[in-house]
């Protein structure tokens, strides 16, 4: 459970999974509706369950995830030291 292994509390959410990415101790699943569910330790990109909408791609580092939305925005979550915080460059990360 400490490494993203327990999905029992939200297993029904993980339907129609199109892609899955893993950080060192967390996972992110892209669902067919373009949403993302991530789980595992917060400092590794997980949380209880993080939902992001309109995602086309997700990529992982050892402790963070980044998602590209259908309108070209980039969102990141997880450890700031490993890429999980893009707020300082957010204005540069649109329409990519």
In short, what is this structure?
It is built from no helices and seven strands. It has 96 residues and is an all-beta fold.
The separation of the N and C termini measures 36 Å
Low-confidence stretches: none
Largest sheet: 4 strands, antiparallel
Radius of gyration: 13 Å
Shape: flat
What percent strand? 35-45%
Number of helices: 0
Enumerate the strands of the largest sheet in spatial order, edge to edge or round the barrel. 1-2-3-4
Task: Briefly note the structural class of the backbone.
Answer: mainly beta
**Fraction of residues in helix:** under 10%
Number of strands: 7
Average pLDDT taken over every residue: 81
Order of helices and strands: EEEEEEE
Written description of the protein model:
- The chain is mainly beta and 96 residues long.
- It has strands at residues 17-22, 27-31, 36-39, 50-52, 55-60, 64-69, 74-78.
- The strands form two sheets. A four-stranded antiparallel beta sheet has the order 1-2-3-4, with no helix packed on it. The protein has a three-stranded antiparallel beta sheet with strand order 5-6-7, with no helix packed on it.
- A hairpin with a 4-residue loop joins β2 and β3.
- It is flat.
- The model has no long low-confidence stretch (mean pLDDT 81).
